[in-house]
Structure formats: structure tokens, C-alpha cells
Design goal:
Layout (H helix, E strand, L loop, with lengths): L10 H8 L10 H18 L3 H7 L6 H8 L7 E2 L2 E2 L3 H14 L1 H21 L2 H12 L5 E4 L15 E5 L2 E12 L6 E8 L2 E8 L5 E5 L11 E12 L11 H35 L1 E2 L2 E2 L4 H30 L4 H26 L10 H13 L4 H13 L6
Parallel strand pairs: 3-6
Antiparallel strand pairs: 1-2, 4-5, 5-9, 6-7, 8-9, 10-11
Helix pairs in contact: 2-5, 5-6, 5-8, 6-7, 6-8, 8-9, 8-10, 8-11, 9-10, 10-11, 10-12
Length: 399
């Protein structure tokens, strides 16, 4: 361009300039191919519609089969139609999906990491054969019911109870903030029993199960969250996940979901930054592009510094997961940092867009709203701070 400014329409060049540390060069060809395929899907299938979905407060359930064909449902699982991709490949997919919208990445996480992951790890061979191939294809949607009205950060205090009745189980209680349940065919339900916490595969049309959609919401509007009420819901013994006993069952799935958030939040932050950068390169005030003003450049630089640091953090955690050396403290550090920084980036990006930044055609305000939910679910800032505090001191501050 004649004034020396970068071309706001050359997104590839802007991304290359923004990758100051050359993180892209740390990825393998296969990892970049995965990222690029998911990025192309988001550009074609999500970006043109997401502002409308968010505004109307609807989740596009029709995307499920397309996400299945893309290979991102249960992406890291082995067999049953799953891709058995690496942790880094899944992380890059989560990043690109959340660059579209947190609600879309959350669907993939609930379906693949929470519901499918629980069945794959703790289910019987018959349960795996029954559910996983159809869930991987997006033909069946699953849900994961752990959080309760009175038990969020402390799942050990859950009051939903399952008792034996002959060869069946009867479940009573309530779950809240449960993703996808109103559009799902099966829910992985965690309940107290005389044997400790157990997991059940409950059909969502089971008699006595009431599912209410939680709305209206100011965040995660292109997603669906629900409350489940169990009024003597009877399920056969074949629905019990035989391998899961105690809180280790749901916690193993939560760690998988938290890992996806480490990368996903980075996508929302990057998309916000890029919207701000491109606007600043187009917008003129006082006779010059606002990208040339010192205060604007400082905002952009601060965003890139945190994006690059968060990207290295996500990649290190992904490499550790692939190497089998990942620890819960690593995941907590990644989730705590990357979501916190992503919110700050989205909010700062909105300021560069000025009044235009409150329009849903510009993504920062939508990402900022969504990230408030991401910051809360799969462990709040406070929970992850205390997990790290216990790791550092050896002392638990929870009880």
C-alpha cells in the first residue's frame, strides 16, 4: 500500500507478522493441515451465520453431522469411527472452532471430551459399540450431567442419588448448567450411590426426566444449557458405566475438557485481536489511520504479547499431553492464564473498534461475553488457583 501500512485484507500476511516468535514453525505439517481444514470449515460454515445464531439465542444442531465428517467429534479417541488424532491436533482444532464461537467449540467438547470420553474410558464394550460410532458421526448427540444447583465447584457434595431396585436403578435429583441435554439422545449422568459416585447412560426421553432450557442468557447464546430434574427415573443395569467409581470418573473427563479450553480461549482471543487490527488499518481519524497512533499500537502490541505467550503455553501443554507427562497442575495453569488473558484481549479489542465494537457483526464483544462463561465452567479462576496453590505448597485450601 502507498502509505506503507499493512493490507487489512491480506489476513495471511497479518498473521505472519503477528507470529513474532514463529510459533507456526513449531508445528508439524500434519498439525498445520488439521488446523487449516478446521479453519476453512469455520470460515465457510460458522462465520457467515454466527452473529445471527448468537442474536437469536439458538444452537445450530444441524452442524453436528458436518462436524462428524470433519473428524472433530471424539477426535483423540481410538476406534469406533474416531480419528485418534494427537492432543496438539485436537488443540489446534479447538482453537479454530472457538475463533468461530465458544458455543461451537463447547459442543465439540461436551460431545467428544465429556460424553464420548466417559463412554470410551469407562463404558462396557457393548456401550461403546452402541453409542460411540454414531456420536463420532454426529448422528447422536450426548450430554454430560455433573453440576447441580447446589454443587458446582464442589461436585463431591452432589445430592442426585441412584439406588438399586431389583436389577434396575432409580435416579432422583437435579442437575444444572448441563450442555446440550435438550437436543441430546443420551446423557452421562453422575450420581451418588451406596457404592460411591457412579455414572449412568440415561436416555433423554426416559420417563420422569424433565429437561428445561436455561434462558435468556447474555453469554454463550449460540449454545444450549439446561436443567435436568430426575423424578424416580428408572434405568436398567445395562446403563451403568462399569469402569467408573468415585469422582475419578467425571474428573478424568473434566481434565480433557479443560485441556480443550486452554487452546479454545486462544482462538477467541486471536479472532478479537485480528478484528481490531484490521479495523485499525482501515479506520481513519484526524487525517490518518488509527493503526498509526501510539495508543492504538500499544494496545495491539499488548494483545500480541499475551497471544504469543498463551500460544507457547498451549503448545507446551499439548506436547506434554502427547508425551504422557501432562499433570492436572499444567492444565489448571493453562486454563487459568489463557482464559483470563483472552477476556482482557477481547475487551481491549472492542475499544479499538469504538462504537462499531458493540455490533455483533464485529466479534470481540461476542467473544468477551462468551468467555465469561468459559471462565466459569470446567473450574473457575478460584478453583484453578487453589489447585495450583496445593501443587506449590502441598496443602489443600478446599476443606
Amino acid at each position: 500500500m502507498t502509505d506503507g501500512a499493512h493490507d487489512p485484507d491480506d489476513l495471511a500476511a497479518l498473521r505472519e507478522a503477528s507470529d513474532v516468535l514463529g510459533i507456526d514453525g513449531l508445528l508439524s505439517a500434519g498439525e498445520r493441515d488439521t488446523r487449516d481444514r478446521v479453519r476453512a470449515f469455520v470460515d465457510a460454515e460458522i462465520r457467515p451465520h454466527v452473529a445471527e445464531w448468537f442474536d437469536r439465542g439458538v444452537f445450530p444442531a444441524e452442524l453436528a453431522p458436518a462436524l462428524g465428517r470433519l473428524g472433530v467429534l471424539g477426535m483423540t479417541l481410538d476406534g469406533y469411527g474416531c480419528r485418534h488424532a494427537s492432543a496438539v491436533q485436537y488443540g489446534l482444532a479447538a482453537l479454530e472452532l472457538e475463533a468461530g464461537d465458544s458455543g461451537i467449540r463447547t459442543f465439540v467438547s461436551v460431545q467428544g471430551s465429556l460424553a464420548m470420553g466417559s463412554i470410551h474410558r469407562w463404558g462396557s464394550d457393548a456401550q461403546k459399540e452402541e453409542w460411540l460410532p454414531r456420536m463420532a458421526a454426529g448422528e447422536v448427540i450426548g450430554s454430560f450431567a455433573l453440576t447441580e444447583p447446589g454443587a458446582g465447584s464442589d461436585p463431591g457434595s452432589m445430592t442426585t442419588y441412584a439406588r438399586r431396585d431389583g436389577s434396575d436403578w432409580i435416579i432422583e435429583g437435579a442437575k444444572r448448567w448441563i450442555g446440550l441435554a435438550s437436543i441430546a439422545q443420551v446423557a452421562v449422568v453422575w450420581a451418588q450411590t451406596d457404592e460411591g459416585v457412579r455414572g449412568f447412560l440415561v436416555p433423554t426421553d426416559a420417563p420422569g426426566l424433565d429437561i428445561a432450557v436455561l434462558e435468556p442468557k447474555g453469554s454463550m447464546r449460540a449454545s444450549v444449557q439446561t436443567q435436568l430434574t430426575f423424578d424416580r427415573v428408572r434405568v436398567p443395569a445395562s446403563t451403568l458405566l462399569p469402569g467408573a467409581r468415585g469422582l475419578r470418573g467425571p474428573f478424568s473427563a473434566l481434565n480433557e475438557a479443560r485441556y480443550g479450553i486452554v487452546w479454545g480461549a486462544l482462538g477467541a482471543a486471536r479472532d478479537s485481536y485480528e478484528a481490531a487490527l484490521r479495523h485499525a488499518l482501515r479506520r481513519e481519524q484526524f487525517g490518518r489511520k488509527i493503526a498509526g497512533f501510539q495508543l492504538t499500537q500499544r494496545k495491539l502490541v499488548d494483545m500480541v504479547v499475551e497471544l504469543q505467550k498463551s500460544g507457547l503455553l498451549a503448545l507446551q501443554i499439548g506436547r506434554a499431553k502427547d508425551a504422557g507427562t501432562l499433570t492436572p497442575a499444567m492444565v489448571s495453569l493453562g486454563k487459568l492464564n489463557n482464559v483470563r488473558e483472552a477476556i482482557a484481549i477481547a475487551r481491549e479489542a472492542r475499544t479499538i473498534l469504538g462504537g462499531e465494537g458493540v455490533l455483533l457483526e464485529n466479534p470481540p464483544i461476542r467473544h468477551a461475553a462468551n468467555l465469561e462463561s468459559v471462565r466459569t465452567y470446567e473450574g473457575t479462576d478460584e478453583v484453578h488457583t487453589l489447585i495450583l496453590g496445593q501443587h506449590l505448597t502441598g496443602l489443600s485450601a478446599f476443606r
